[in-house]
Design brief:
The protein has 369 residues and is α+β, with helices and mostly antiparallel strands. It is built from eight helices and 19 strands. The protein has a six-stranded mixed beta sheet with strand order 10-11-12-9-3-13.
Length: 369
C-alpha cells in the first residue's frame, strides 16, 4: 500500500494509526481524515453518548498569541471579553470582519496573563492567520505563532472520558473544571488538556507534543476508548445543536441570524465588528437558524428548500439521522415568523415534501447538564 503524502492533502501525526485501525479515509478541509472505523458510525456515536470515544482533531489550527497586549488584541478580533478572562479559562466565540460576517468560530484559552491559545477550524486557519496578522500590525507587543505542527490534538468525549483520563494522569484531569485548560502529565510528558469539546458531552481536548501523539492514542485504545471519525463527530455535534463553519455559517452570515448572539460581547472598546453587530442586532435579521425534526424517515440535507404552506421560507444547512433520538433532524435558516417551536414546515427532500416541525435547540442535552 502506498502511504506517501498525497500532494493535495495533508495528514495528521496519527495518519498511520488510523490506517492500522482500519479507518475509512476521506478528504476534509484539505486533510486526509478518518470518517469512520470498522464498527461503524452508529457504534461510535453510542460510545460517545454512553462510554467514551476519541477523535483525532489535529487538523484544527492551534495559534498562540503572546505579549503584554495579547489579551487586549484578541478582544479586538474575538467576540469574547478576552481581557476579562482569568488565566486557565476559555470562551467560545466568533471571529467577524468589519461587516459582521463570520470568518470563523473558535475557542480562545487564556493560558497566562501574556499568552492565549486560539483553536480554529482547519479550513479557516490561513484566513484567520491573515486576518489577525493584519489587525495585529496596529498593536505593539503581540506575537502570533502557528503551533499546529508542534502539537497534536485528541478529543476524548463521553461519560467515561474524565475517569479514564484520571487513571492515566494520576488524577490530574478531574482537577480541570469544564471550559478550563491546564496541564496534565501522561506517560511522563506534560501536555495541555482543555475540558472542552464538540459533542455535547463532558470530555477533554488533549494537546500532546506531536512526537507523543501516537503513544497517547495507543494508550487510550488500551484503556478501551473507541476511535471515532468525522461521521460520528458530525452526528454528535448536530444532536448537540452545534454549528459547523462552512456549512451552517459562512462569512456571508452574521452571528445574530446564526443564533450566536449570546456569545457576543459588545460592551468593550475596539472590537472591529462591534458597530456592525450592534446595528444588525438593532435592525434584526429576516432569517434565523432553527432546528427541526422530520417525519417518516426523511433526512434533511444541506441546500434543500424549507417550505411553509408550499411557499419557500428557508434552506437546510445540516441534517442527519440521530441514533440517540432515533429520529431525523436538521437545522437551517428560516424566516423569523416560521422559527417558533411547534411551527409546521415541509422539507423538499429530493422532490418529495417531508413534514417537519421546528423544535428547540439543542436536540439532545447530556445528563451532565
Amino acid at each position: 500500500m502506498n502511504i506517501e503524502q498525497t500532494p493535495s492533502l495533508k495528514r495528521t501525526q496519527l495518519y498511520h494509526a488510523h490506517l492500522k485501525a482500519g479507518a475509512k479515509m476521506v478528504p476534509f478541509a484539505g486533510w486526509e481524515m478518518p470518517v469512520s472505523y470498522p464498527r461503524g458510525i452508529i457504534s461510535e456515536v453510542k460510545s460517545v453518548r454512553h462510554a467514551a470515544g476519541m477523535f483525532d482533531v489535529s487538523h484544527m489550527g492551534r495559534l498562540t498569541v503572546k505579549g503584554r497586549n495579547a489579551a487586549q488584541f484578541l478582544g479586538t478580533v474575538c467576540s469574547a471579553d478576552v481581557p476579562g478572562l482569568a488565566p486557565g479559562r476559555s470562551k467560545y466565540h466568533v471571529i467577524c470582519n468589519e461587516q459582521g460576517g463570520i470568518i470563523d468560530d473558535a475557542v480562545v484559552y487564556r493560558l497566562t496573563e501574556d499568552e492565549c491559545l486560539l483553536v480554529v477550524n482547519a479550513g479557516n486557519k490561513e484566513g484567520v492567520l491573515g486576518w489577525t496578522g493584519r489587525q495585529a500590525r496596529s498593536m505593539d507587543a503581540v506575537e502570533i505563532t502557528d503551533l499546529s505542527g508542534d502539537l497534536a490534538m485528541i478529543a476524548v468525549q463521553g461519560p467515561q472520558a474524565v475517569p479514564t483520563l484520571d487513571r492515566i494522569s494520576a488524577g490530574g484531569a478531574s482537577k480541570i473544571r469544564p471550559f478550563r485548560i491546564g496541564e496534565v502529565a501522561i506517560q511522563g510528558a506534560r501536555m495541555l488538556a482543555a475540558r472542552t469539546g464538540y459533542t455535547g458531552e463532558d470530555g477533554f481536548e488533549i494537546m500532546p507534543p506531536s512526537d507523543r501523539a501516537g503513544a497517547l492514542w495507543d494508550l487510550l485504545l488500551r484503556e478501551g476508548i473507541e476511535p471515532s471519525g468525522l461521521g460520528a463527530r458530525d452526528v454528535c455535534r448536530l444532536e448537540a445543536g452545534l454549528m459547523l463553519h462552512g456549512v451552517d455559517m459562512t462569512v456571508e452570515n452574521n452571528p445574530i441570524e446564526a443564533g450566536l448572539e449570546r456569545f457576543l460581547y459588545l460592551d468593550g472598546s475596539g472590537y472591529v465588528a462591534g458597530q456592525a453587530l450592534k446595528r444588525i442586532k438593532s435592525e434584526g435579521t429576516r432569517r434565523i437558524i432553527a432546528g427541526f425534526r422530520t417525519s417518516g424517515r426523511a433526512i434533511p440535507r444541506h441546500g434543500q428548500n424549507v417550505l411553509k404552506d408550499g411557499k419557500p421560507v428557508g434552506i437546510v444547512t445540516s441534517g442527519t439521522h440521530s441514533p440517540t433520538l432515533d429520529s431525523d433532524i436538521g437545522m437551517g435558516y428560516v424566516d423569523r415568523i416560521c422559527a417558533a417551536p411547534g411551527t409546521r414546515l415541509q422539507i423538499d427532500v429530493r422532490g418529495r415534501l417531508a413534514d417537519a416541525e421546528v423544535v428547540p435547540l439543542p436536540f439532545y442535552k447530556s445528563s451532565r447538564g
